[in-house]
Specification:
The complex is a heterodimer of chains A (182) and B (114). Chain A is mainly α. Chain A is built from 6 helices and no strands. Chain A is elongated, with a radius of gyration of 16 Å. The N terminus of chain A is likely disordered. The chains are: A mainly alpha (182), B alpha/beta (114). Bound molecules: copper (II) ion.
Chain lengths: 182, 114
């Protein structure tokens, strides 16, 4: 319980730092990202959710959780494929950066936490994380990656991904409700 | 003289023929089914609520970046295959339907027969 709470705090912290750091008010502190770095961050954020889904497929027995994880795997794979196709077309090579590194470091902690859980405790931890993670990713795509991308096609692509992220968030919240009802 | 009579008969015949055809079409012409399109884009069915006449065809076309399907709400009556981006699927509608995407259950739509 304590772990979940500290983890949630961590996720909220991530969301907070992503939104506050990159809100217009804190404009001076915005990390400047090149399009190559925006692309890398987008691919990393999608890959992280695929990795979480992989853990869910290994550890969950709940039909709704497994269906959700399957959707995450397929949708985020599709987004990555299209991102890669776009940057290839634009001649941009995704470049590692501080935001990507932060995302990965947090994801590693979360994955470790998820791997210690099983059964209903796992299902709850996984879905709670999916809710928090999608909130954080939506905030950073809207608040950082879209404003930072200079290329119009890259910007349009990211804008096109937001509805999928929002539908995933709603889907996760739906499963979250089902789990707490049982 | 003769020629004029033939012309009159001919035009009378033609008028009756036209009237008869009009009569036939007004009474026995069956409704010609229309085709409606529901576009799937940005994680939504557009339009989410569609009015059709009985027997109309509805084409669902996936213009989104991810796979979607069209599944009857109870999940028991009918279901489309998973549609890749760019793919479409159609059905003939004879009664009211409510449906959702079983891949993304927050996406919902309905068809009303008017
Ligand atoms: Cu997702």
């Amino acid at each position: 319980m304590k772990r979940i709470r500290s983890f949630t705090a961590c996720a909220i912290g991530l969301l907070f730092s992503l939104t506050v750091l990159h809100s217009p008010v804190a404009g001076q502190n915005n990390p400047k990202l090149s399009d190559a770095e925006v692309a890398h961050t987008a691919v990393t954020a999608n890959q992280i959710d695929i990795d979480y889904a992989k853990i869910a497929k290994e550890r969950s027995k709940n039909t709704e959780v497994l269906k959700f994880a399957e959707t995450m795997t397929n949708d985020h794979k599709a987004v990555i494929e299209q991102a890669v196709a776009l940057v290839t077309k634009l001649g941009v090579t995704p470049q590692d950066n501080a935001v990507s590194k932060n995302l990965l470091a947090d994801a590693e902690k979360t994955s470790k936490m998820l791997r210690t859980k099983s059964g209903k405790t796992f299902d709850k931890a996984y879905i709670d994380n999916e809710v928090a993670y999608h909130k954080a990713v939506i905030a950073s795509v809207e608040g950082l990656l879209i404003p930072e991308s200079e290329n119009a096609e890259l910007k349009a692509f990211l804008q096109n991904v937001v509805p999928a992220l929002k539908a995933h968030l709603e889907h996760a919240q739906m499963v979250q409700k089902q789990l707490s009802g049982k | 003289m003769n020629h004029a009579r033939i012309t009159i008969r001919y035009s009378l015949f033609m008028s009756f023929l036209v009237l008869f055809l009009l009569y036939l079409t007004s009474f026995s012409a069956p409704y010609k089914p229309a085709t409606h399109t529901v576009e799937i884009s940005q994680m939504k069915f557009k339009p989410a609520a569609l009015d059709v006449k009985k027997g109309d065809k509805v084409v669902f076309i996936n213009k989104d970046i991810v796979f979607h399907d069209v599944t009857e709400t109870s999940g028991k009556s009918w279901k489309s295959p998973a549609l890749a981006p760019g793919k479409s699927w159609s059905m003939v509608v004879t009664q009211n339907q409510s449906y959702y995407c079983s891949i993304h259950p927050v996406m919902k739509g309905s068809i009303t027969v008017k």
